[in-house]
Specification:
The complex is a heterodimer of chains A (157) and B (126).
Chain A: E1 9-13, E2 18-25, H1 29-36, E3 46-47, E4 51-58, E5 65-72, E6 75-87, E7 91-98, E8 106-115, E9 118-126, H2 136-153
Antiparallel strand pairs in A: 1-2, 2-9, 3-4, 4-5, 5-6, 6-7, 7-8, 8-9
Chain B: H1 2-22, H2 28-35, H3 37-47, E1 51-52, H4 53-60, H5 64-76, E2 80-85, E3 88-93, H6 95-101, H7 103-124
Antiparallel strand pairs in B: 1-3, 2-3
């Protein structure tokens, strides 16, 4: 397992408005799939005191719903979506929506590939809506997105 | 044609991002860098992957000195970074700079970066 040295790397694609992230893990695809689709989510979608996922529930099947909630800088938030593809241990696709936001849901795709000694996990988070600055509603939400962005940005390595 | 549309979309996207940022902080260097269509095209080309000046010159049918001048402006605006590999200088998009331009995407990027780092630590903990 010593060859698995690549740490996590995430890049933003400004033109397509998406994030591509990749990490190599010294564990089997079956184990990785479980951590993506179980309450274990709360152990890694987290930055204590800043962005805490406290709860995660889901009906893991195509069309099934998922919901995560927690506290971000003292205020509650909730994310939800539904599963579009469930193909263990290779692929999991789900929509992602911030509850209450007027934007259309974005899409998170997890790809799991077996590699020598482990698994390469690639995350593609696409369709992230840009806050609409042309409307008043958009202006309000822009502040919220800025706040979300600020909250999430505190997650530095 | 698809390629052209892609470049045009990218251009407006970056310009929009820069306009948004300008209200918060002056990004005059980046504005100046992005104002030139060749530099926008170079930036779009580098998004596909790092390249040296020679490759960029042949891609854009420009002289090497002209491309070098554009690269200097992009470097000064911190939109592009230069790395020496042996005797060669390779240019790449500076992810940090472009991300600061698109703060709303940066939050998500940082989230995934941190979460996957944590995931790796959890799964590989003895």
């Amino acid at each position: 397992m010593s060859e698995i040295k690549t740490g996590a790397r995430a890049v933003a694609d400004l033109v397509d408005g998406c994030i591509v992230a990749c990490v190599e893990l010294a564990t089997s695809p079956e184990r990785v799939f479980l951590v993506l689709a179980s309450p274990e989510i709360i152990d890694w979608w987290v930055n204590p005191g800043v962005f805490d996922t406290r709860e995660w529930t889901a009906d893991v099947r195509v069309g099934g719903q998922w919901r995560a909630s927690g506290i971000a800088r003292g205020l509650p938030y909730a994310l939800e979506g539904k599963f579009l593809e469930v193909d263990p241990p290779r692929r999991l696709v789900q929509t992602w929506h911030m509850v209450g936001a007027p934007s259309t849901p974005s899409t998170v795709t997890y790809l799991l590939e077996p590699i020598t000694g482990g698994t390469r996990l690639t995350v593609h988070h696409s369709g992230i809506a840009e806050p609409d600055q042309r409307s008043n509603i958009g202006a309000g939400w822009r502040t919220s997105f800025d706040r979300l962005s600020e909250i999430l940005s505190t997650h530095r390595e | 044609m698809t390629e052209l549309r892609f470049l045009t979309a990218g251009r407006f996207y970056v310009i929009n991002r820069l306009r948004m940022m300008s209200r918060v902080q002056a990004k005059t260097d980046a504005f100046r860098a992005i104002a030139d269509p060749t530099r926008r095209a170079i930036l779009d080309r580098l998004r596909a992957g790092p390249a040296n000046a020679g490759t960029l010159a042949s891609d854009f049918q420009s002289s090497r000195p002209a491309v070098s001048r554009h690269l200097r402006v992009l470097r000064e605006a911190r939109l592009v970074v230069e790395t020496r590999i042996g005797r060669e200088r390779v240019y790449a998009v500076n992810p940090v700079s472009l991300q600061s331009v698109a703060g709303w995407l940066e939050g998500y990027r940082a989230f995934w970066q941190a979460s996957l780092t944590k995931l790796k630590r959890n799964l590989e903990a003895k």
